[in-house]
Design goal:
The protein has 2 domains: about 180 residues, Rossmann fold (3-Layer(aba) Sandwich), CATH 3.40.50.2000; about 160 residues, Rossmann fold (3-Layer(aba) Sandwich). It contains 13 helices and 13 strands. It has a 7-stranded parallel sheet with strand order 3-2-1-4-5-6-7, sandwiched between helices. It has a 6-stranded parallel sheet with strand order 10-9-8-11-12-13, with helices on both faces. It is globular and about 65 Å long. The two termini are about 15 Å apart. The model has no long low-confidence stretch (mean pLDDT about 95).
């Protein structure tokens, strides 16, 4: 390997979940800073890289027969690199045994360590009682994606730097015509997209109430609801019951690409109650789509930049927008996204954090 080696560690990498997507952006940023990248994860579903290492006990749901964690062997893996970036494993302990093993290895490794926190234990009811994570490794650099997490860590004696999620604000828009044809959407349909997995905090009931109300307001124009993600964490029976009562046609599954999904949609609905950041907010803005939101705490940090979004409690506002589109509103939102969330600035932001932490050479 040429140059310093950055090892990324997570339950899964290379997928479509938010942690995987942001980890990939960090890999690209560190690559531009001269690092060679390798990945260690319990699951590596797509796009294998030559130096990938699959560690079965690290998966969110380890396969039958997976060996128990071996802290010494895992520490040796980390020691092979110059920098270890732990993506949420020590932040949100969804596999507690794995989280504690990785935390122990972080304490022992000779590698420099970044703990990249997308969520924290006390931010989810199922992990709120876990108090030994994230680890207090003195030399580690803690990075959070929102100001609330930074403040919460500070009250627990951990200093963190905030580097918000970043986005390709100059991305090419998707192919609306081809995507809608591939997905079987009629030309006249108003497609309301919820880009989310089916889990409780994504608040699918609120999205469905909204879609039904919007359909009444825009009638006789037909409306379709589109949920991209699968049900997880045992939510399928709940989802089935919810969808059985919806009065509009429903589509499920991913589009050809995320950009195509946004292009194929007419409205994006995102009524989540809890998010570490909420990537669809900025993605929708880049795609120039009207965005309907509920409220989750971190959303306030995004709205502070002046974005103009629609409330899930007011379907009439989007009905009016669809009747009389306001291109200037979409332009203003895009300008603010370019100012505050540009992916091109990520390498410099990471490098500045490293230097402030005293990592000036490798």
């Amino acid at each position: 390997m040429g140059g310093p080696v950055a090892t990324f560690v997570s339950y899964r990498l290379g997928g479509t979940d938010g942690v995987s997507i942001e980890a990939t952006k960090w890999m690209q940023a560190l690559g531009s800073l001269g690092f060679t990248i390798r990945r260690i994860a319990g699951e590596l579903p797509v796009a294998p890289m030559p130096d990938d290492v699959v560690v079965e006990w690290l998966a969110l749901d380890p396969p039958a027969g997976a060996p128990p964690p071996d802290v010494d062997a895992f520490t040796a893996l980390l020691d092979e690199g110059d920098l270890t970036v732990v993506e949420n494993v020590c932040s949100l302990p969804m596999n507690l045994e794995a989280s504690r093993a990785v935390a122990a290895a972080v304490d022992r490794t000779r590698s420099r360590v970044v703990l990249h926190h997308h969520d924290l234990p006390w931010q989810r009811p199922q992990t709120a009682g876990i108090t030994d994570l994230p680890p207090r490794t003195p030399s580690a650099l803690h990075v959070v994606i929102n100001a609330a997490s930074r403040a919460e860590l500070a009250t627990r004696g951990i200093t963190a730097v905030q580097i918000t999620n970043a986005f390709d604000v100059e991305a090419t828009l998707g192919d609306r015509t081809a995507a809608r044809a591939a997905l079987g959407f009629a030309d006249a349909e108003i497609v309301v997209l919820q880009p989310a997995r089916a889990i409780p905090r994504k608040n699918i009931p609120a999205a469905l109430v909204y879609v039904d109300a919007l359909a009444e307001l825009v009638a006789p124009a037909p409306v379709r609801f589109w949920l991209t993600g699968p049900a997880e964490d045992g939510y399928q029976p709940v989802l089935d019951a919810l969808l059985a009562d919806v009065r509009v046609p429903v589509s499920q599954g991913l589009g050809p690409t995320p950009a195509d999904a946004y292009a194929a949609a007419d409205v994006v609905v995102f009524p989540s109650t809890v998010e570490g950041f909420g990537n669809p907010v900025i993605e929708s803005i880049i795609a120039r789509r009207p965005l309907v939101v509920g409220h989750y705490p971190v959303l306030d940090e995004i709205l502070a930049h002046g974005f103009e979004l629609f409330a899930v409690t007011d379907p009439g506002a989007v009905a009016g927008f669809l009747a009389n589109p306001d291109a200037a509103l979409l332009d203003r939102n895009l300008a603010r996204a370019r100012e505050h969330y540009a992916l091109a600035a990520l390498p410099d932001r990471i490098d500045a954090a490293f230097r402030a932490h005293g990592w000036t050479s490798w």
